[in-house]
Predict the 3D structure of the following.
Amino acid sequence: MARFSGPEGVESRTAGVRDRVSGSPMDVNARFRVGSVSKTFSTVVLLQLVQEGKLELDTSVNQYLPGLLPDDRITVRHLLTHRSGLADYTNAMFADTVPGFEAVRNRVFSHQELVDLSLSEPRTTEPGVAYKYSNANFVVVGMLIEKLTGRPLADAYERRIFKPLKLRKTSYVHPDTRIKGLHVRGYLHPDAAGEPLVDSTEQTVSWAQAAGAVISSPADLNTFTSALMRGRLLSPAMMEAMTTVTPTDATNTRFYGLGLRRYDLSCGVQVYGHTGTVQGFYTYAFSTRDGRRSLSAVANTSNHGIANTALGGTLEPAFCGKKPV
Ligand SMILES: CC1(C)S[C@@H]2[C@H](NC(=O)CCCC[C@H](NC(=O)C[NH3+])C(=O)[O-])C(=O)N2[C@H]1C(=O)[O-]
């Protein structure tokens, strides 16, 4: 399903079902797991703490979490730009998609356990040298938020983003496995063709936490990315920092800033937001730089290239007015 909000109003599209057993149709008012779109929520909270003088972007993480990381050169900015070199433990964790998921779906990890999983693998780059995406970076961001606020991550999200923006369908309930209220069930594709889909809706998402455990809705994601781009959550200086990007691949159309992706579309429009992949759900949540146009799109499946490609194909029609392929 997809929801587009712009000066001309709101348009939404749905297809298929939100529950394969009941056959209930996809519903644009339903909630779902947003995966790494959570990283942008976490970044907003951390940058608010930077604004409040509680930490500095170019200071060593170990200054705030003494002894956590084996390299004092790793800074807060390195975490937010995926340039820390911390390995992404999910590559090994989910190498075998369904067994990997089943092994962790009800597990509750401590932050330290996840950091230790990352540190058990070689670093992927010298700090600051190259972009190497890693969930571990945002596990540490979650640790920083809890250390500097003295409160659970959920409180920071609620007080600093969900409540001020009235995101009534957005929540962070880790380690509760349920998606409360009207929601979409998610279906994980196994690696082997012909194997049955796995209903992956209920899980703790403890393997991700600040890197991927937020639950939201299409309208709330439109509101969030639009409000962010309109400067309702961060100062102009902090927005400048967040939207200062570097390329993430050779296409020169995909970029990453601070916990934020920028995609440059064929019509010259640049959109900012994040993508998300969590078992059973693919999500795109993007806005134009002025926040006037926003798209949120979700498929209730994952580990399925066709669905992911289809989601990626929503940006051009939404923001460039091109007919879907
Ligand atoms: C960079 C990404 C794509 S991966 C990263 C994070 N999601 C994960 O790390 C989960 C990976 C396993 C998901 C699982 N896949 C497998 O198990 C494959 N063996 C599936 O498809 O459900 C997220 O979300 N990010 C996406 C992002 O930022 O868009």
User: Anything to note?
Assistant: The CA atoms of residues 105 and 203 lie 5 Å apart. The mean pLDDT is 97. The longest strand covers residues 270-278.
